[in-house]
């Protein structure tokens, strides 16, 4: 048994897949589940985005997309479709990358997942080096001390640190805001009021240590 599991984050630029092109044109933010590749070469895509961004129209105009379906809930649109275009992430999955989440932001992509052992990581990095626009952003042991460092440095609880980190990664602090409190709370699996309380308590702890 291999005991070392590594969390890995990749940034992707210059991709010409339908979702990258559509988010580049519309400036939208998309959260996607790992694509499922079918034996006929098509990929099943499942993803969501804020409503009213023009993403649906952009995808409808792309002849590589088939069977596009959209449903609406809580200010977001959930999509399902087939894509004739191969996904870049499959090149990494084929050599051992266990993808958890994919985010598209204005044509750029971020993959977060894991690899089991450094030998697998080496193969994934080789595949990434052969794929245009894929760069390693971060790697750390799953459950390692790196994830606890932020909370320990600023005297935060793990829940407060997770709330602040997720809010930052989702663009909650961006101007204009790229995610609502409800959307960040959903990512954390908690209610909106619980998220806001953790966020405010965490911010208060950081400000207290910064400004005395």
Describe the structure.
- 38% of the residues lie in helices and 30% in strands.
- With 212 residues, the chain is α+β, with helices and mostly antiparallel strands.
- Helix 6 packs across helix 7.
Task: Give the secondary structure arrangement, pairings included.
Elements: E1 5-12, H1 18-26, E2 29-32, E3 36-37, E4 43-50, H2 55-60, E5 65-73, E6 76-83, H3 89-93, E7 98-105, E8 108-116, H4 118-129, E9 134-141, H5 146-153, H6 158-170, H7 181-188, H8 192-211
Antiparallel strand pairs: 1-8, 1-9, 2-4, 2-7, 3-4, 4-6, 5-6, 7-8
Helix pairs in contact: 6-7, 6-8, 7-8
Which key phrases capture this entry?
globular; 2 domains; 38% helix; Arc Repressor Mutant, subunit A; nine-stranded antiparallel β-sheet; 30% strand; alpha+beta; 8 helices; 212 residues; 9 strands
How many structural domains can be distinguished in the coordinates? 2
For the record, give the distance between the C-alpha atoms at the N and C termini, rounded to a whole number. 49 Å
User: How large is the share of residues in beta strands?
Assistant: 25-35%
Average per-residue pLDDT, rounded, comes to 87
Major sheet summary line: 9 strands, antiparallel
Helix content: 25-40%
Order of helices and strands: EHEEEHEEHEEHEHHHH
Unreliable residue stretches: none
Radius of gyration: 18 Å
Number of separate strands: 9
Content-based structural category: alpha+beta
Q: Which descriptor suits the 3D outline?
A: globular
Q: Number of DSSP helices?
A: 8
């Amino acid at each position: 048994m291999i005991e070392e599991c590594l969390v890995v984050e990749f940034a992707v630029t210059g991709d010409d897949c339908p979702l990258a092109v559509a988010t580049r044109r519309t400036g939208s933010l998309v959260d996607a589940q790992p694509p499922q590749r079918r034996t006929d070469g098509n990929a099943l895509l499942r993803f969501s985005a804020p409503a009213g961004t023009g993403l649906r129209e952009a995808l409808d105009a792309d002849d590589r997309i088939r069977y596009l379906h959209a449903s609406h809930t809580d200010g977001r649109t959930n999509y399902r479709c087939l894509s004739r275009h191969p996904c870049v992430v499959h090149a990494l999955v084929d050599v051992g990358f266990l993808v958890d989440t994919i985010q598209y932001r204005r044509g750029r992509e971020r993959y977060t997942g894991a690899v089991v052992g450094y030998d697998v990581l080496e193969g994934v990095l080789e595949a990434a080096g052969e794929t245009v626009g894929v760069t390693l952003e971060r790697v750390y042991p799953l459950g390692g001390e790196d994830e606890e460092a932020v909370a320990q440095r600023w005297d935060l609880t793990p829940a407060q640190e997770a709330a602040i980190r997720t809010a930052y990664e989702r663009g909650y602090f961006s101007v204009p805001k790229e995610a609502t409190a409800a959307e960040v709370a959903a990512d954390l699996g908690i209610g909106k009021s619980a998220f806001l309380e953790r966020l405010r308590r965490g911010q208060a702890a950081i400000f207290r240590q910064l400004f005395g």
